[in-house]
Each structure stands twice: as C-alpha cells, then as structure tokens.
Specification:
Elements (H helix, E strand, L loop, with lengths): L2 H21 L3 H13 L3 H8 L10 H5 L3 H11 L10
Helix pairs in contact: 1-2, 2-3
C-alpha cells in the first residue's frame, strides 16, 4: 500500500467518523457507498472491509445485511471470497 493510499484511507476514516457522529448514523451507512462509488471498490470488498471480515456477531456482515450467518457463509464460499483477507491484525 502506497503512502498516498494510507493518507486517503485515514482521511476517509476521519470523514466517516465525523459524519457518523454528526448525524448519529453507523459508519456502514456512509463508508460502504463511499468505498463503492468513490474509490472503485466492489460491493464485496466494501462490505468485507467495513466488517473487518467478520461474518457473525453483532458487528458482523450478516447482521448488517439482514441475513442468517449460515446463509452468508455459504454465499461467501460459493463466490470463492476469502473473508480472511479483510481481517485487521
């Protein structure tokens, strides 16, 4: 990842955090459309990055998408998506 990309994503995080606090909405409501439309990420990449590769649990992608965890897990497997690439260390 280049320095300019790091600066861009740090700026994105600041904007999403500020807007989320200002309008009392979750970051996903702002981050996912911004990543998809503004930065050319696919919908899968945007969802994966926003949920840090987590599928189940309160902050997992399944809850945000309104799907049962098992359904989302099977769709991820069928599409050949590596959910671990989104994990934060």
């Amino acid at each position: 990842m280049s320095f300019s990309e790091v600066v861009l994503f740090v700026g994105l995080g600041a904007v999403v955090g500020f807007a989320g606090g200002l309008f009392a909405v979750g970051g996903a409501l702002i981050a996912i459309p911004l990543l998809t439309a503004g930065f050319g990420f696919t919908q899968h990449d945007s969802q994966g990055k926003e949920s840090a590769g987590r599928v189940g649990g309160l902050k997992g992608a399944a809850v945000k998408l309104g799907l049962p965890r098992q359904t989302l897990e099977s769709k991820i497997k069928a599409l050949g998506i590596n959910k671990f690439r989104f994990r934060r260390s």
